[in-house]
Amino acid sequence: MTLPLPVSEHTIIPARTASEVWQQCLNILKDQVSTLSFKTWFQPVTPVRLAGKDLTIQVPSQFFYDWLEEHYNALIRDTIMAVLGEDARLFYAISADNPEPASAAPEIAPPQAVEQHRPFAPHVALRSENMLAVRDNLNPRYTFDNFIKGDCNQLARAAAMAVANNPGGTSFNPLVVYGGTGLGKTHLMHALGNHALATGKAKRVIYVSSEKFTVDFVEAIQSDTLAEFSQFYRSMDLLIVDDIQFFAGKEKTQDNFFHTFNALQQMGKQIVLSSDVPPKELKGLDDRLISRFQCGLTADIQAPDLETRIAILQKKSQENGLELPQDVLEFIAANVTNNIRELEGCLISMLARASLESRELTIDLAKDVLRIVVHELRAPLTIEEIQRKVCEYYDLPVDLVRAKTRKQEVVVARQTAMFLAKELTNSSLKTIGLHFGGRDHSTVIHACQAVEENAKRDDAFRQQLERLRKRITMNA
Ligand code: ADP
Ligand code: MG
């Protein structure tokens, strides 16, 4: 007979290495930032040492360090705490100045070579002096000031400001902001919360993602603290829940949220929600919740138009202390059309490459960066796909653009498709011609010129072209 082994009171955690810990961090970080930012800012980091809960990571340069600190401090902090626990500390080492990039793997910095040695700032941000202090989760970087106004977000922004100035006091309760990914919902949620808090219009404010709400709810059940959990959320003046589509299928959480929602609304407190689709299209959510969501104001955010994209890029580069030449701004804005996070990704990548490779901020660099972005973020467009989308738009059978017909509406569609194929794929004029019933390259040149001239002369046509381009590039 064997006796059971004595069980220690403390759970024994197997020792982990710096690499394992950092890998776990990377797994979390990769879902929090764009692919491009991830590659640019997190993959080049080397884990150096783990001593207890002190993790040291090495970054390639001072600029790199400054950038991480400035832009990802909170994210890295939260991630490391999630992996190592609340008392974790992070130290940075900067690779010793090294004019030639080392061909071998970088030497791990010995302790004395560590130039920067900076642990976290205190974790809990308490903004209120009194006993009601709440950790609000608000990111102070997201404000109304740095949220660029455009046709695409006018209603959502105006509604958010109205609510921030008078939480619970407008008929916009709940305020639901919906729109595609990377279009500014989260930014607007934080801006609203920050403004209400800063102006004292709301004292108790909390921002949570629906996922965080769900996790906390489950934990509260497990630790038998459901009463505290409910009490906490019901004590808010302003409750902001981001990405409510992730409540889908989580019935118990939805049930709890439903009661929280009702309790807050009855007390005249403000609720603000965001979603990737309009409330009535939310799948896997209880009908009674959906009908609650619809009783205030629902405002959408659309993809930004060219002017707004330029303005956003301008603002973001200024925030980073840089003046991008106008032609570079316009080039990026013209080519990255459907998502503001991608726009930012390009900018960040430009800055990173400019700094790491000592290159000027020119169109050439922008082209290089875009090639990666376009390559990474979407599958390459095919000429067939462009033909299909264009014909769909003009309501023509796709065979016609490849046939000989010279009917006016077919000619317009054919030329437009050729033009877009030239613009949006890397195909040669010859290849494009071949896809259009074996026409030769001079026909394609002629088509491109015709479309350009037409777009210059005719506003309606130009708008059509822009809409089509958007449909094709957004794969809508
Ligand atoms: P979503 O939550 O809709 O996916 P985010 O709010 O995270 O999008 O926005 C993605 C990035 O784009 C953020 O860095 C945000 O600051 C920026 N952004 C979005 N809209 C605007 C805007 N109108 N002005 C300035 N920056 C914006
Ligand atoms: Mg978001």
Beta-strand proportion: 5-15%
Helix content: 40-55%
CATH architecture field of the largest domain: 3-Layer(aba) Sandwich
> Would you identify the regions where 5 or more consecutive residues have pLDDT less than 50?
1-12, 97-134
CATH superfamily of the largest domain: P-loop containing nucleotide triphosphate hydrolases
Number of E-state strands: 8
Assigned CATH class of the largest domain: Alpha Beta
Give the topology string: H per helix, E per strand. HHEEHEHEHEHHEHEHEHHHHHHHHHH
User: How is the biggest beta sheet arranged?
Assistant: 5 strands, parallel
- Distinct small-molecule ligands in the complex: adenosine-5'-diphosphate, magnesium ion
Strand order of the largest sheet: 5-6-7-4-8
> How far apart are the termini?
68 Å
| Number of alpha- plus pi-helical segments | 19
Radius of gyration over alpha carbons?
A: 27 Å
CATH topology of the largest domain: the name is Rossmann fold
Count up the domains: 4
Task: Give me the secondary-structure category.
Answer: alpha/beta
Mean of pLDDT: 84
